[in-house]
Design goal:
- Helices cover 47% and strands 16% of the residues.
- The protein has nine helices and seven strands, in the order E-H-E-H-E-H-E-H-H-E-H-E-H-E-H-H.
- The protein has a seven-stranded parallel β-sheet with strand order 3-2-1-4-5-6-7, sandwiched between helices.
- Helix 2 links the parallel strand 2 and strand 3.
- Helix 5 packs parallel to helix 6.
- The longest helix has 29 residues.
- It starts with 9 loop residues before the first strand and ends with a helix.
């Protein structure tokens, strides 16, 4: 169960090698979290993440999870919930893709969509059902400002995040009043392995800053969190910019 400050004692991370997810786990362990499940494909990176969090004093376990294999999600994630209540699920997996390559090779574009959207719908619904059954918990979904309005430079990734964002908001409405809290997190450009080599966008942030915002959002039981907060205003303006003007913007 969560403590008096709303901090989870148990955490399930979908996307166990995500830098944002691991920064969040470290922050929560420093507060009150004692049990962490890392769900992801078995790999040296997942093993290293496990040892890193164990060194902070948490009990850390792993579960094989593949976003591209939705038929396995119910069994894999069901095993986690069967071991005990989960206070917080952090849906943190996703791929950026390569816009130029993905436009030329539709199969690659579909892989981005299946990972970021289809896989998230499957895993999100499985976890939502389990959280509802236990009667409490938070589902935190890492979306992106890229989903606010499709841009020429990354519309394949952006469209997948737009779908995820809409799904998560609708799921939050469906779960309202059940004891389950859904929080959508919309970071801007995050300095991480995923964005290495890309030109940095204005208002760039870090995994640690996103983790801080997630903690604050949990305490406030927020439904939507922007990181940094100034992006709320920026994206409101871009969302309503006339299309001919939007096409000329250097974004």
């Amino acid at each position: 169960m969560k403590d008096a400050f709303g901090m989870p004692q148990s955490l399930l991370v979908l996307g166990g090698t995500s830098e944002i997810a691991l920064a969040t786990a470290r922050r929560l362990i420093a507060r009150r979290t004692r049990t962490v499940w890392l769900a992801g494909r078995p790999s040296p990176a997942l093993g290293a993440a496990t040892e890193q969090l164990r060194a902070l004093g948490a009990e850390v376990r792993t579960v094989p999870f593949d976003a591209l294999d939705p038929e396995s999600h119910e069994e894999a994630l069901g095993k986690v919930f069967a071991e005990g209540d989960i206070d917080m699920v952090l849906l943190a997996f996703g791929v950026l893709g390569d816009q130029a390559t993905d436009e030329r090779e539709p199969v690659q574009a579909v892989r981005v969509a299946q990972t970021n959207y289809t896989g998230a719908v499957s895993a999100g619904l499985v976890c939502a059902r389990e959280l509802q059954t236990q009667g409490h918990g938070s589902l935190v979904v890492l979306s992106s400002v890229a989903g606010e309005r499709a841009r020429r430079s990354n519309f394949i990734y952006g469209s997948s995040k737009a779908g995820l964002d809409a799904f998560a908001q609708g799921l939050g409405d469906a779960l309202h009043g059940t004891g389950v809290h859904v929080m959508v997190v919309r970071p801007g450009f995050v300095r991480s392995r995923m964005t290495a080599g890309l030109a940095e966008a204005p208002l760039a942030t870090t995994p640690e800053a996103v983790a801080t915002a997630i903690e604050t959002g949990l305490r406030r039981r927020s439904e939507l969190v922007w990181v940094p907060g100034a992006l709320r205003v920026v994206m409101a303006a871009l969302r309503h910019a006339p299309r001919p003007l939007f096409r000329r913007l250097p974004i």
